[in-house]
Amino acid sequence: MNIDAGRFLADLHRLQSFGASGVGKGVVRPAYSEADVAARRWLAERMQAAGLRVETDSMGNLFGLADGPSILLGSHSDSQPEGGWLDGALGVVAALEVARASRKAGGPAVSVVSFQDEEGRFGVTTGSAVWSGHLSLAEADLLCDHDGVTLADARRVMASTGEIDPAQFTGFIEMHIEQGPVLDQADERIGVVSDIVGIRDMKITFDGQQNHAGTTPMHIRRDAFQAVSAFNQSLGERFANVVTPSTVWTIGHVSLHPNASSIVPGRAVFSMQWRDGDAERLDRMERIIRALAQEVAQARGMEVSFGQLLGLEPVAMDARLRGALENSAQQVAPERWRVMPSGALHDATNVARLMPVAMLFVPSIGGISHAFEEDTAEDDLVTGLRVLAGAVSGMMPELGG
Fold this sequence. Notes:
- This protein is α+β, with helices and mostly antiparallel strands and 401 residues long.
- Helix content is 36%, strand content 22%.
């Protein structure tokens, strides 16, 4: 299988142009936005030119399908509100290049996917969650973004050609940037993923009393933002005997009402997300979060409510697919690769409900991702592509090549 590194890089840079931020290589391409729809239209054209049958399901997940049973490669092409050019996009374009090269070489059948809303405008890896059956389309349609837009309304911009049967795929491999500093700091070229952490995500609302900021004494205020502050300050102490050094939690979005300088906020809605490789620990953390929020609300004469709990369980990679990636990594980048866990969530977590999955990483310069500064050396991008192609080639007898 002879890959065309120049064609691969050209496609990757062309995809970056859809929603280009104007700041470095940054991208603004949220799910279902005009830039996202345009990018998917271009990707569909490239898939069709590669001899793949293009299909789009109800969620807007975009598939380029080979004939008969095939291995599925890909990732996602939507971005964070301020995202990088490689997050997700790398896996989609790499999959497309491997599909083209394999077809030309008479190798195994390779299909390509770009999942929708992996970045969570409406939930947690929403497109692959619905496709895998983890979340029903009816449930997903009720989800809202931070502006109150429902997924049902947003996805109307996508024209569906029908649902895609996962039974036609023999497995799924997702290539991705690491989004962390490990490979970059170690001067290594490839990470073969051992497992993906689990995640929990929900919104919490404190309802206090909106009041005048100049005339309301501090000791009688029911300030919703102060409740968020007290909650956040106490959370680490409550977690102390439960978490490990690899456990993480984040309050990433806070919305105050009425959000005015001279008004004590009467309502605060904030996101609460936590990640760990142990499902039982995630559940223990949930109990602590709920109990602490209720304590804070009660102490301050407020009401607290909890939104829908979204999440995914930790997932171990398939031994056969992972072994193929390890063998290829050793051939392409001898002694400059490692086996490592993924602290970030990926579509592979959902797809694992349907078929064997595996992942490989390339370095992120400075460990930066979910930012306009996100980047990877082009040599490392091509190395990752060669490892992916080598893994697929190495499984030719099993995949029908």
